[in-house]
């Protein structure tokens, strides 16, 4: 009796999940008419399952039994069994063909979808199926786990009429899955050896950056290592996958704002790709030896200010304290020579003296006039400034800066900023995770111009995870402290102050914050559809579920 209660609770819970996903009892599989791009012939799962199941295909032909194989997202990739048998005909009539989506999100409680959802074998017998169309079947679903990487690769479902003995289905299914998993491992060894041979041949005697990407492996020569340190491997794999689907041999990937790496792709027959990486910024004469150009704050501005440089009209530069507003205003003024009026001086000089100084500067300046920290001005001076920004009477190009927090709280300040012809908002440092590797090296080069420092990937990640309330100013102080204790060479995680050597279980900062934002955006764009969001993010649905729980995202 306890076993019956436990089993009933498991089914009830699975049905609740199905209802929450919006599945109805009359749902049917969604089938794709074109599966060419979806299931390339050389995918690891298809090769392993095909090699294993072809051996039992003849034996199954005379049995009332069907085997279904789905990938990790729940898409059916292969069916094996007697097409002329009763179960074979029913399977096909119910739409269980290549391309059918059997995920719990689409079809509720079923062998494949629930095995993928729970990560363990599951029996679903007759009326336990949430969808009525499957209630003539007894099913046993088993996840397929790669023995080497322990990664979920897909699931196998043994399907038979409801009167079948489920214990026999389970024994047969587990035997088949074990053989598929062993074939996966064997194929991986062969594929990695072939990929290594191709990589050695491609990288031998070349001065180019070369790397190899396999299902479980990344290999790179010395020149590629520096570039790969700045590249997120998940993004790289997603980019290569998109290129494969588009049958393209070229792609590009960003390593920071306006910093692109061109990628030439050679697909290996046994699986994997050989990539030749070309950092595009190294072709610019203004950046010697591939080092990024740093402005006064050590920032890499990218395209943020290019749109306003050299143009006429006033400019508003807004950002949190420490984001480099003053330096950004100077960049925005180019090629004009700027004159700086700082509103901080009003506190010491007095409103009347400061106002006269501003009016004099307006009349005398023919280049650019930067009015810094306007959020500190009282009402009278803000009114004058609003008029100055809104009309074109001044011969100087007016550039104003303000604290973004003050802008949110002060309607008068927003009114002045809204009058500017161009508006530039500088993001806080915590939102610039992708720029960190180049940003910190550029700033380090500015701090210690006569020394050469590099930062390991773990050091970059440790800094990127921090919250940085002081933004660039705070980062500069930390780097000055770190560099003062080193003569040159590579900065590793152990060289950083203790607060930046966080473990991965600390609150969300840096990389986790960026990942959370990306997942929330993808889920919103997909209107809560986890399959679509997972594909857009380049991850499996199981991984997406795990990250949703880990990052405490409610959907």
TrEMBL record:
<keyword id="KW-0805">Transcription regulation</keyword>
<dbReference type="InterPro" id="IPR002078">
    <property type="entry name" value="Sigma_54_int"/>
</dbReference>
<dbReference type="GO" id="GO:0006355">
    <property type="term" value="P:regulation of DNA-templated transcription"/>
</dbReference>
<dbReference type="GO" id="GO:0005524">
    <property type="term" value="F:ATP binding"/>
</dbReference>
<dbReference type="InterPro" id="IPR027417">
    <property type="entry name" value="P-loop_NTPase"/>
</dbReference>
<dbReference type="GO" id="GO:0043565">
    <property type="term" value="F:sequence-specific DNA binding"/>
</dbReference>
<keyword id="KW-0804">Transcription</keyword>
<protein>
    <submittedName>
        <fullName>Transcriptional regulator of acetoin/glycerol metabolism</fullName>
    </submittedName>
</protein>
<dbReference type="Pfam" id="PF25601">
    <property type="entry name" value="AAA_lid_14"/>
</dbReference>
<dbReference type="InterPro" id="IPR058031">
    <property type="entry name" value="AAA_lid_NorR"/>
</dbReference>
<keyword id="KW-0547">Nucleotide-binding</keyword>
<keyword id="KW-0067">ATP-binding</keyword>
<dbReference type="Pfam" id="PF02954">
    <property type="entry name" value="HTH_8"/>
</dbReference>
<dbReference type="InterPro" id="IPR002197">
    <property type="entry name" value="HTH_Fis"/>
</dbReference>
<feature type="domain" description="Sigma-54 factor interaction">
    <location>
        <begin position="341"/>
        <end position="484"/>
    </location>
</feature>
<dbReference type="InterPro" id="IPR009057">
    <property type="entry name" value="Homeodomain-like_sf"/>
</dbReference>
<dbReference type="InterPro" id="IPR029016">
    <property type="entry name" value="GAF-like_dom_sf"/>
</dbReference>
């Amino acid at each position: 009796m306890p076993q019956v209660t436990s089993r009933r609770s498991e089914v009830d819970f699975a049905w609740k999940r199905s209802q929450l996903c919006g599945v109805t009892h009359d749902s049917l599989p969604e089938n794709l008419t074109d599966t060419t791009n979806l299931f390339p012939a050389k995918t690891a799962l298809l090769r392993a399952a095909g090699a294993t199941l072809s051996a039992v295909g003849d034996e199954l032909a005379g049995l009332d039994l069907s085997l279904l194989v789905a990938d990790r997202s729940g898409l059916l990739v292969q069916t094996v069994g007697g097409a002329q048998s009763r179960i074979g005909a029913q399977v096909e009539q119910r739409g269980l063909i290549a391309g059918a989506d059997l995920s719990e999100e689409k079809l509720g409680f079923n062998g494949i979808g629930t095995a993928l959802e729970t990560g363990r074998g599951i029996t679903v017998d007759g009326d336990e199926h949430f969808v009525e169309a499957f209630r003539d079947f007894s099913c046993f679903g088993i996840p397929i786990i790669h023995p080497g990487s322990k990664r979920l690769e897909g699931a196998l479902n043994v399907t038979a009429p409801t009167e079948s003995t489920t214990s026999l289905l389970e024994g047969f299914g587990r035997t088949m899955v074990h053989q598929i998993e062993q074939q996966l491992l064997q194929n991986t060894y062969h594929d990695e050896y072939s990929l290594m041979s191709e990589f050695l041949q491609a990288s031998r005697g070349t001065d180019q950056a070369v790397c190899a990407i396999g299902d479980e492996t990344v290999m790179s020569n010395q020149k590629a290592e520096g570039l790969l340190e700045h590249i997120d491997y998940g993004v790289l794999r997603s980019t290569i996958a998109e290129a494969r689907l588009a049958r393209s041999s070229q792609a590009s990937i960003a390593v920071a704002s306006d910093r692109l790496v061109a990628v030439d792709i050679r697909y290996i027959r046994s699986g994997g790709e050989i990539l030749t990486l070309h950092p595009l910024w190294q072709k610019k004469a203004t950046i010697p030896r591939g080092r990024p150009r740093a402005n006064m704050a050590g920032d890499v501005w990218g395209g943020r200010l290019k749109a306003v440089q050299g143009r006429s009209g006033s400019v508003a530069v807004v950002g949190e304290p420490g984001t480099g507003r003053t330096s950004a205003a100077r960049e925005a003024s180019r090629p004009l020579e700027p004159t700086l009026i700082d509103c901080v001086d009003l506190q010491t000089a007095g409103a009347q003296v400061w106002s006269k100084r501003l009016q004099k500067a307006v009349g005398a300046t023919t280049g650019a006039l930067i009015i810094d920290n306007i959020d500190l001005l009282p009402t009278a001076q803000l009114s004058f400034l609003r008029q100055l920004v809104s009309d074109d009477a001044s011969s100087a190009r007016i550039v104003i800066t303000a604290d973004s927090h003050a802008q949110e709280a002060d309607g008068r300040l927003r009114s002045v900023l809204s009058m500017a012809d161009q508006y530039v908002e500088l993001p806080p440092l915590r939102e610039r995770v992708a720029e960190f590797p180049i940003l910190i090296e550029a700033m380090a080069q500015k701090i210690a111009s006569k020394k050469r420092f590099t930062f390991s990937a773990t050091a970059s990640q440790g800094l990127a995870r921090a919250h940085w309330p002081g933004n660039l100013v705070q980062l500069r102080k930390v780097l000055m402290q770190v560099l003062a204790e080193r003569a040159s060479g590579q900065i590793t995680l152990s060289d950083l102050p203790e607060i930046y050597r966080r473990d991965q279980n600390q609150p969300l900062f840096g990389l986790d914050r960026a990942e959370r934002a990306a997942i929330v955006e993808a889920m919103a764009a997909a209107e809560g559809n986890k399959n679509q969001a997972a594909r857009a993010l380049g991850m499996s649905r199981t991984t997406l579920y795990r990250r949703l729980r880990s990052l405490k995202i409610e959907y």
